[in-house]
Amino acid sequence: MGRPAVHQASERQFLDERGSSSRLAPNGLNPARIMEKAVVDRIVDSYFWKEQCFGLNEADIVDRVVDHVHFVGGITGASQKPTPFLCLALKLLQLAPGDDVLAEYLHFGGDKFKYLRALALFYVRLTRTPKDVYATIEPFLEDYRKLRRKGRAGTSLTYVDDFADDLLVKDRVCATSLYKLTKRDVLEDLDLLSPRVSPLGDLEDLLEEEEEEEEEEEGEGGEEEEVKRRRKKSETRSIAHPASRPTSP
User: Fold this and answer.
1) Residue 156 near residue 71 (C-beta atoms within 8 A)
2) Which of 11, 133, 127, 117 lies closest to 66, judged by CA?
3) Best CA proximity match to 92, nearest among 170, 181, 9, 168
4) What are the domain boundaries of the chain?
5) Crossing angle between the packed helical segments 114-127 and 84-95, to the nearest 10 degrees
6) For residue 146, what are the β-bridge partners?
7) What pTM did the predictor assign?
8) Who's near 33: CB < 8 A, 6+ residues apart?
9) What is the pLDDT of residues 178-211, one digit of tens each?
């Protein structure tokens, strides 16, 4: 991805003014207040923020993710240290990349670098409208690549699709409270979203097909049992009552 001509956001102004002079995110939230102040304070006091997050632009984010992000997570360990993932998420809130840059993160870069995709999905959930959140995140419910997740309890294994699902259904992910999403069916009723089609197909059709297959198997099994039962009864009758052979004249 080429380096776009972008501004380098003012670190001090963004943090000191808590975004009061910056534009709102597309979902109407103040980007400087999306993360809790206590979490932001831990981020800006961290070594990673001071060493790796100063003066970055949107293209630099890719380099930092590739070099330093090896797991998703928020606050880790007894010292409550912020992860590089969370630090870069705050940097994205400060940079406010446009949809074209996010598309690069999600698709071109995301196909190669799964943690870049995860970071972009997280940022989309924090800043985009419910309609755009569903439309952007749902396609990645079919990305089954493994991710490492790190939290206060330690490191565990997850997957891109599970992380995407968490962003859609949970209230808090990576030490960050997520704003309440409008229910998907409500957006469908308002004609803002089309009904989601599962990659497995329509659920009712699948259930009907399973029921038909079970009935066919039961029917075939019943016919076989009936044939066996009749054959056995015929053999029993033959033994008990052997047919008399006709005598020759």
Assistant:
1) no
2) 117
3) 9
4) 11-189, 200-235
5) 50
6) 159
7) 0.76
8) 18, 19
9) 999 999 999 999 999 999 876 665 556 667 777 7
